[in-house]
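Obj.: predict assembly geometry.
Materials: sequence records (below).
Method: joint structure prediction, all chains together.
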Amino acid sequence: METLHFHHKVKHRAAGTKAMAIVGVVASGNLEVLVERILPNSDCELDIKTAAEGFGAVWQLVVADFVELRSPGGLKLSINDGGARPDTVAIRLAQAVRLIEDVDT
Amino acid sequence: MRTWREARIARDARIDAGRALAKHKLVEARDGVALLEAVIRPGDRVCLEGDNQKQADFLAQCLAAVDVHRVHNLHMVQSGVVLPEHLDVFESGVAKRLDYAYSGPQSSRIAGMLFGGKIELGAVHTYLELFARYFVDLTPNVALIAAVSADRDGNLYTGPNTEDTPTVVEATAFKDGVVIAQVNEIVECVPRVDIPGDRVHFIVKSDKPFYVEPLFTRDPAAITESQIFTAMLAIAGIYAPYKVRRLNHGIGFNTAAIELLLPTYGERLGLKGKVASHWAVNPHPTLIPAIESGWVEQIHCFGSEVGMDDYIRARSDIYFTGSDGSLRSNRALCQTAGLYACDLFIGSTLQIDLQGHSSTVTASRIAGFGGAPNMGSDARGRRHPSDPWLRAGKEADPDVTAPLRRGRKLVVQIGETFGDSYAPLFVEKLDAIILAEKIGLELAPVMVYADDVTHIVTEEGIANLLLCRTKDEREQAIRGIAGYTDVGRARDKKAVKALRERGVIRRPEDLGINPLDVDRNMLAARSIKDLVRWSGGLYEPPSRFRNW
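Observations (raw structure tokens):
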């Protein structure tokens, strides 16, 4: 098990008003993403617990692209990773942000 | 003085030698080995029928058991190297030289034997190419084929898996060769005549029905979200804009995902009746929901698929069927259909290089090609127009005047940027080239050449290579969808951005794909059982795909 932490300054606050969302499953080759709107609008943090060690450099790139593309200001993402490939990670991150962009009713 | 019929005389002598073991044409299974020893001569060209589906397995066992002092140095000219016996004959010295097309299950052993010099390799062909050579310079002296049933005169019923048989028999029987058929049963009257009896010299009733591999069955339960994602990209980014009606799908989970998304995602995009209506493809079980939803008008098949027989029989509006009601497949004709009458081929691969050459050969496995290089190539002899073909041609050559502009077949490679065991789809140098250097091949076994590939689809987006004007643009277009592989990470970000602005690269966001739709619930069937339900109980999946 390896723990990774990333902190980014971002341009825009994530859309929507939802406070929390969760997507995915903890399984081999898959991952679970919990996203919470608890940070200042200019910040984004990711805490990753991964079963696959030695992929820190790839995670760094995936996270940097995600932050640039989605501008997820104010969000903290907590990830439980079962060794998912980058394609699955990218889909899950996009889904998590898309879910929290909803207006809370 | 030359008789001009020496081959005919030699053929008759072989048949006479075999007749000693036969009653009329019928040979007992226990005499199978003796029959082959009597008929086959050292150095003969032999076609042992077998492809990626059906196998003349009994005759393969007989050939592996012949006395090597009597039968040796054979030149095997066959579609598939699939059964262990297909390679055993090279271990024992019965066979020496090999020309073939496909070696899926034996890909690792055949690589070892090529490295070890046990096999003298002619070439790895595409099916249609090998069939063509049967009529020019690789005509078999003896063909060992498989059929479902025979009557006493040798008329053969091949059933739904007709596949290569008519082509193999045509080349052999009409050029002084001997045709030996294994059959599951001898009957009074065959249900339909697939091969006329005067082309068949000996019939052996085998102990067991010939083997058929359910190669084209993909369990929807095993389709991943990444495969769903790439399938949605292909539908939205290629099927929709080019309005592809006539197509072939390669084997794999990405294309199975496309088939299962047509009635859901495709329907939502309003594509029903506009795309994917006419097919040259095997009877994929994953096409059942699209057929039942009214998407498909017609399908011609290379072979059949285990468990699909009753469904096909009940859907003769869709499939080609015989007077007996069952499927009539024909690999050579379906390959021709795919080459000349389809506007799109889409399939998976294992490696793509910086120019777009694509190969399924890896350092330790030589899987052969099957039909992919034929399906996945632009037919230079094509002369009829169609909208997708003309549009692709215009994208490739905007400056040529329309009446003189060739169209282009859409040849699409689809896959995730990382495959099994984190193997990258994109590489600087193909293993196929390393292999060719290692065993001294003049041609690297490239499955689809770069100049035939028009689009590459990954989870990062679609690269439209038709719109690339230079080698450098092409390389950056490929790097630009290569994700986090080394090839993808070495991209020139500025160049990739410019290519996206020109529409050479299209991202999922550019195509309006909502990540929340990337969900297994989007598949029209999520299990084999769902497929059975869609078929109204007509599809009978093989036991290995049943978990209920």
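Conclusions so far: Chain A touches chain B through 15 residues (CB under 8 Å).
To do: check interface contacts against the pulldown list.
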